[in-house]
Amino acid sequence: MARLCLPLCDWPAPDREAWNAAHRRRGLLDDDGLAANWAAETSSIIAEGYGRFLSFLIEIGDLDPSETPAMRVTRLRVEN
Hints:
Largest sheet: none
Number of strands: 0
């Protein structure tokens, strides 16, 4: 049976790296990641949704682990 939501620990490396960078808090003179101030519940909801997207790509045989998230999230894929 196909997994409905790929857990963060199983995401391809580029996706995990982007997620971690977005959530990273930086120093006083550096900008935080874009998601650094998200509530835990918000992060959980977004991670679950993206994990479902990755599971969908696995199910249809279209997940290339070497792609970056920006390469992977295309209009065609999202509209399907």
